[in-house]
Design goal:
The structure is a homodimer.
Chain A lengths: L28 H8 L3 H9 L6 H14 L5 H8 L4 E6 L5 H15 L4 E6 L4 H13 L4 E5 L5 H10 L3 E5 L8 E4 L2 H15 L4 E6 L5 H16 L6 E5 L9 H9 L4 E4 L2 H13 L9 E5 L12 E4 L2 H16 L8 E3 L3 E3 L5
Parallel strand pairs in A: 1-2, 1-3, 3-4, 4-5, 5-11, 6-7, 6-8, 8-9, 9-10
Antiparallel strand pairs in A: 10-12
Helix pairs in contact in A: 1-2, 1-3, 5-12, 6-7, 8-9
The first copy, chain A, binds a DNA duplex through helix 2 and helix 4.
DNA sequence: TTGAAAGCGCTAACAA
DNA sequence: TTGTTAGCGCTTTCAA
């Protein structure tokens, strides 16, 4: 508090009765205005459209701001302008880098424009997702990114009423709720199955993370099975794992694969594919001689031995693209291309 | 919009001139009030203190809310109450699970109380951190968690003026800015060095992530060196790596370690320690016979062969504890214990 | 238990 | 380029 600029917010010289001031005691735009001898509006303009303010005023305002230590109250600004400059993203978990990276991509896309990112994790719960959607809409976020291609009826209703841009991530519904950034997970599964077929492996298996709301993994399994059938292979073994992130020991899985005489397996989780590979190796199984393994890409894919054949989905880019879409829409632009296919890479390495 | 409750926000029956309405067209508390035939204050009370509203009114209000599809505008509420129910956390990156997990822990600690989490990533930049602090304070977050024990003067000034609870994470400054949750990274380094000394290894090395603002890693190195000296060992080799997350090939490091005839190495990054172990193995180096390796814990520590001796820092719990501290302070409670040492585990396994 | 009035701190609309 | 005025939608204060 300098020079006695504002100490008490109570300006009621001779107003109403003795109502206690509700002021927060913090420096307001009004205080800056008084210090710079301009109106509050001019200070506001200086902050938002500096080019519309004269040089003399600008100089005094800038000085006043730093002198009184003014930090604009964005809450008040949001209420008045009906734009929060906050964007929300809902992911299942942040412990898995594949879901944390889009959050970072989103933030990077929006940072320059002064947006902040609210994050919510669902732990794969549909109910939590609905609650988050409501909470975020209540906070009047300017846009929202939601992991997955399915939205509950309740979420749809709330989002529709909010009339804000929405990006669905990781999947490409034929008719997105609003916009979608992702890829075909069915294609991913099919791509791996085709690779196995071409290599001549017949007895296949697929290990997926099966969670009711994790449709990405389910789609990959579906695509895998369909493609295997197309190639006239026997129906692959389908194995399910609850929480791939927590698997530290895949020896049971390895034993089961061996018992079933599986020749090639596709693991739809990055973490688990590496774990499985390492386990198979220490169980003395030749990879790919006895068992071929394909998984999802991680930093370890090229470090393990044999190196892992893996599908790479550009997680960070997903968030970046989602952010760019939101930015355009929040700027009032119409977006024609409502589905962005970010594709995937299939890196064939030694393990298959 | 049901039953004609509010369609246009312009209520100016015969007010002022012809000023265009600024209303957002969304359902407001007033619309619910009218539908339930109570005042707006009663609806507000029903939402915040349901026990203070009569049963008849409560019933009508509940019905009205769902009938008109009311989602309270938390921005307006925040402005009026001067509480945003938003907490911010600043981390270097979300791509590294060790930094993503505290975010999740924080969210889990706060969810039940209706708080949301704003996330900012700095990519280890001090300037970005300052900008984020300003932005978050501008949004009037009710509390803030900041990775690291050092705060710039600018950040301190802004935070002091904001007068909100602040938790520093991962380190335990002797005198925290406000509160701190973490552990002694010097102790971590010392613990590993002591272990090496006890095992009889003399020629040591430590590989750290050296980034000017990443003082955690630096402290671990410091502790390691000090303890080695205390045990009368020759000065360990110190090697630096720019971005441990991006290291996919540690063969250069392995070669250097061999050239320098290092007997035991401590790698202060989880990712890199596994990569180094795998690289050493494929280079035909016996672990721990020729080279002992200790690192930081990850899901792979027990999967690799030999299993990795590793320090486990409870990242998720760090965020959880930070959230609990904030919650107490935001509830107006005084917190006596301003430094929470979450400790660490040292899991000795086969690699040393 | 309920309601009326008065802001919270800012920006949009309008006027000069 | 600058200022004045009137809200944004809610909660707090005070009164009944």
């Amino acid at each position: 508090m300098v020079d006695g600029f504002r100490v008490d917010t109570d300006m009621s010289e001779q107003r109403a009765p003795a109502r206690r001031s509700r002021g927060t005691g913090r420096v307001r735009i009004e205080d800056v205005a008084r210090a710079a001898e301009v109106s509050a509006q001019t200070v506001s303009r200086f902050l938002r459209h500096p080019d519309q303010v004269g040089p003399a005023a600008s100089e005094r305002i800038a000085a006043a701001i730093s002198r009184v230590g003014y930090v604009p109250n964005l809450i008040a600004g949001s209420l008045a302008s009906n734009r929060s400059r906050v964007v929300a993203i809902i992911v299942p978990t942040l412990a898995n880098p594949v879901h944390a990276q889009p959050v970072e991509g989103l933030g990077d896309a929006l940072r320059a424009d002064g947006y902040q990112v609210l994050v919510g994790t669902t732990d794969f719960s549909q109910e939590v997702e609905e609650a988050l959607v409501r909470a975020f809409v209540g906070r009047r976020v300017d846009g929202i990114v939601i992991t997955g291609g399915r939205l509950s009826a309740a979420s749809r209703t709330v989002l529709k009423a909010a009339a804000i841009p929405v990006v669905q991530l990781w999947e490409l519904p034929r008719i997105p709720f609003d916009m979608a950034v992702g890829n075909s997970n069915i294609d991913i599964g099919a791509c791996v199955a085709r690779h196995f077929a071409e290599r001549g492996y017949r007895r296949l298996a697929v290990i997926g993370h099966v969670q009711k709301s994790d449709t990405r993994s389910a789609d990959r399994v579906t695509g895998f099975l369909a493609e295997a059938q197309r190639h006239g292979l026997p129906a692959p073994l389908v194995m399910e794992v609850d929480r791939p992130m927590l698997i530290r020991d895949a020896s049971d899985l390895v034993a089961a694969l061996r018992r079933e005489e599986v020749r090639a397996v596709f693991v739809t989780s990055a973490q688990l594919s590496v774990v499985l590979l390492l386990n198979a190796r220490s169980a003395g199984i030749a990879v790919p001689g006895e068992l071929a393994i394909a998984g999802l890409e991680s930093d370890l894919s090229t470090v393990v031995s044999p190196t892992l054949t893996a599908v790479r989905v550009p997680a960070y880019e997903l968030g970046l693209q989602a952010g760019r879409l939101l930015l355009r829409r929040m700027a009032g632009e119409k977006v024609a291309q409502k589905r962005i296919d970010t594709g995937f890479e299939f890196n064939v390495r030694e393990s298959t």
